[in-house]
Each structure stands twice: as structure tokens, then as C-alpha cells.
Amino acid sequence: MTHLGIAPATKDEALWETVRDWLLGVPLQVILIIVIALVVQVVFSRVIKRVVRRASERAKVERLAQMRKVTRTAELSDLLLNQRTEQRAAAIGSLLRSILAISVWTIALLMILPLMGVNVAPLIASAGVVGVALGFGAQTLIKDYISGIFIIIEDQYGVGDVVDVGEAIGTVEEVSLRYTRLRDLTGVVWYVRNGEILRVANRSQGWTLAIVDIPIAYNEDIEKVRAIVDRVAMDMDEDPDYDDLLLGRPAFAGVESMSGEAVVIRITAKAAPEKQVSVARTIRERMKLAFDRAGIVVPVLVRQLPNMPGTQGPPKMGP
Question: Residue 156 to residues 93, 161, 183, 201: CA-CA distances in angstroms?
Fold first, then answer.
């Protein structure tokens, strides 16, 4: 009886010892690797976020109102490009976090598989062969991804920019590693592969130029008109309502063209990205009011074309 009673207990103890040794062996090591991977990912993600935050804070030092005091075009361009540091840093931070996650968990998986009894050497060799095969078969895909990385790092454009990529012109809605999604002026959504983008015209980066041509009577005093333009430009430059539109005082560019009945003057102004139309309309409105107060005549430039409906043709010569 004693022998019969002890044997089962001993067998159970041996089983529990085996289970305990197994739990303290492979599962514990797997859990430890996963925990270390999580810690590494969290720590380095916080480091990346901190670097991005510091870069963003440095980018917020300058404002558009301060940039209006910059007179040199090169300095203005540098300041405006620095303003995009926040967007660029966020994009690069997102890219780095993705690379970090892929790298950490790939290494963790390669460390866990041997513990589960899987020989990773043939797996790595097979992965190398498969990678070479995929490299030849998926060259276009790899090209798209590499181009996407450089687009993000070099800040060629970002979400919200109006760009011309050759095939389409529109507002950028998404920039991924493989493709760029645009929406054109008619609302059509375009998906453009990054590897197929050979050139980019970014209409939202830096500054734009508002150009206003205004005709005046041929006998008007140009110097008087110049003085009126300068007064309007000074008023606009000092008006805080234009802090987000103007990047410099509007300037009298000179006489653009002239004819027997009118002289066309040109006014230019550096404007914030995509604000040149609003700035040009404002300049026309304020110049119209200023010309009315000063008595400057804006001639009516209308020419009738012969043989058009409602017009008379040239007079006949003889019977």
C-alpha cells in the first residue's frame, strides 16, 4: 500500500518539476526577449519624439510678421524654408519610428525562433535567396519606396502643399513610402507612384509673387502715381491684418507697357504661399480707392474688332 501510495505522488512531483523547468526555461526567455524589445522600442521612440519636439520648437521662433521685415529675397526664402522644419521633422520622426519597430521586432523574432527549436540558419539563407529574387522581380516597388524615403527626408513636399508632379496638379492629401495622393481642382483623386515622379513644382513652398498691372491715362504724372503706390504699400505693410498674407512691402515695379491712350504700371508684392491671388485683389481694391481720392484717371481700354457681331466693318473705298 505504501509503495502504491507514494509512486503517484513522486510521479506528479516529477511532472511538476518538468513543467516548472520548462516554464522557467523557454517561456521565460521568450517573455524576457519580448519585454526587452518593448523597452527598447519605447525608449528609442521617446528619444525620437524628443528630438522631433526640439526641432519643432526651434522652427516656431520666426513668424510671418517678423519675416515681413526681411528685404533680401535669399534671406526670406531661408526663413520660410525653416518654417517647414516642424512638418519635415514630424515626417522624418514617423519614418524613423517605423524603421525602429521593424528592426527591433525582426531581431526579437530571430532570437525567439531558436528557443522554439527552429533552426534560423536555413531560414536566413532562404530569406537571402528570396530577397534577391524579389529584388529582381520587384524593382519598381523598391524604387517607389526609396523615392518615398528621399521625398520625406528632403521635404520636397508635404500634406497640404499644392504641387505639380507632371501627370497631375493638386493638393497633397497623403505622402506614403510607395505613393502620393493628390486631389486636383476638379476634386479628382490621383495616386502617383513615388518612383515615377521625376520632377516636382511645389507652389506652397517658400513665397509667391503677386503681380498687379493697372492702366492709367497717358498724360498722368508717373511720379505722382509712384507716390500714391508707395503710400498704399506703406499702409498695407503696417496693417496687422496682412500679417498672414504679405511677406514684404508692395513695390512700384515701373511701367510695363504703354500706348497712345494708356500707360500700364506694374505693382509686385511677395506673398505667403497660395495667397498671391488674395494679395493681388487687395492691392487692386486699395489702389482703386487711392486713385479715386487723388483724381487719377483709369482709361477704358476697349477696341472694336472689324466684322464682329454688333460692329461695322471698314468703310468701303469707292463704288
Answer: 16, 10, 17, 9
Identify the burial level of 270 via C-beta atoms within 10 angstroms of its C-beta, where 0-12 means exposed, 13-18 middle and 19 or more buried: buried
Task: Give the structural domain span for 275.
Answer: 208-294
From first CA to last CA, the distance across the chain in angstroms is 148
The confidence score (pLDDT) of residue 95 equals 73
Q: CA 35 to CA 50: how far, in whole Å?
A: 23
Tell me the three state secondary structure of residue 141.
Answer: helix
Taking each helix axis from N to C end, the angle separating 2-23 and 26-59, rounded to the nearest 10 degrees, works out to: 20
Instruction: Decide if 270 contacts 229 (C-beta within 8 A).
Output: no
The percent helix, strand, coil of the chain (3-state, each to 5) is 55, 15, 30
CATH number, domain containing residue 73: 1.10.287
Task: With 0.70 as the threshold, say if the pTM is over it.
Answer: no
Q: What angle do CA 84, 90, 93 make, to 5 degrees?
A: 135
**pLDDT above 70 for 73:** no
- Based on the fold, state whether residues 77 and 158 are members of the same structural domain: no
pLDDT digits over 218-227, tens only?
A: 888 999 999 9
d(CA 28, CA 184): 55
Angle at the Cα of 173 from the Cα atoms of 170 and 176, rounded to 5 degrees: 115
- Dist. CA 113–CA 117, nearest whole Å: 7
